[in-house]
Design goal:
Elements lengths: L2 E9 L20 E5 L9 E4 L7 E3 L2 E6 L3 E8 L4 E13 L2 E11 L3 H32 L7
Antiparallel strand pairs: 1-8, 2-3, 3-4, 5-6, 6-7, 7-8
Length: about 150
């Protein structure tokens, strides 16, 4: 059984302005306060996960799939494989100057549903905080004429 949590919002900027450099995530991202690595299939990211109201912790997800300006998928396993999750970040281009940003996670494994039940609030709040921070940064950067992906 899998449990899915997701946050979606519209961004008034083109998809290519939304996500690019993991090394810069910590500049704007309240969910991943430290980030390093290269987005490439099979690579491992080094992230500091900071769920609201919880102690932050280091995670090392493996990139499963990546389509530039469209999606990033990564896999994480915890508690000796009793909790497995697939995290996704998706960008859906709606117009030349607008897109939908979705970020979510699907939890599986023997203890996946119980972990979600216990952490549903902080996970949803973290996804929302990430989405809102991204929206603010991308829209202000894009409107200012920088046009540089973050």
């Amino acid at each position: 059984m899998a449990v899915k949590l997701e946050h979606r919002l519209g961004i008034q900027a083109p998809a290519e302005a939304v996500i690019a450099d993991v090394e810069r995530w910590a500049e704007w991202n309240p969910l991943y306060t430290r980030a390093s690595g290269v987005i490439r299939m099979g690579s491992t990211l080094d992230l500091e996960l900071a769920l609201p109201g919880r102690q932050s912790r280091a995670i090392r997800p493996v990139i499963l799939d990546w389509v530039p300006n469209e999606q990033i998928l990564w896999r994480l396993s915890a508690l000796g494989g009793l909790v497995k999750s697939t995290r996704y970040i998706e960008i859906e281009q709606l117009s030349p100057t607008g897109c939908i940003f979705s970020n979510g996670e699907m939890f599986e494994g023997l203890m996946g549903p119980s972990v979600v039940q216990r952490l549903r609030g902080p996970i949803r709040a973290g996804f929302a905080a990430m989405g809102e921070a991204l929206k603010t940064r991308v829209e202000s950067t894009w409107r200012a004429g920088g046009g540089e992906p973050i």
